[in-house]
Design brief:
Shape: globular
CATH architecture: 2-Layer Sandwich
Number of helices: 4
Amino acid sequence: MSASAEMPYFIKPSINLDKVAKRQAYQEAMVAINANLEGATNSVLKMATINCILKTFLPYYYWVGFYTVNKERLEVGPYQGTLGCLYIDFSRGVCGKAAREEATQIVADCHALVPGAEHIACDPNSQSEIVVPVFGKNGELIAVFDVDSTLKNSFDEIDQLFLEDLLDQHFASF
């Protein structure tokens, strides 16, 4: 199956937020996530809930999901959006780079990257993205959290701050 540039009927185009609205949306989402995940220990349950709530509160989230680590490659985990890449080697794409370097990656324009090497175009509608490494309780990389937008320049230091804190809170302690 090949990717199409046509927007799927079940997905809404992204809407960027200004910095004030973005902070407010994250604060509201964090309250909802923390309330729903209180006492939760199952990682898949946590991943699915985080995806759902963030995609609900942040209108520039087009695709949101986790890729879990399995022997130097990433495998798609819980996500919301169009079909994601099933496997990503650490040597390829933004997700691979985030896993390899164990550092958050923010991409303002996905299509400015080298296709196949620096960026894997699972969906041509994705214009910008953020990928955050997810660490377990012993500090080991267990996944990356990937968010795409249909608009350029959707992600910044606000996203990075909130997402790194959220993921640390819910995965580094379990």
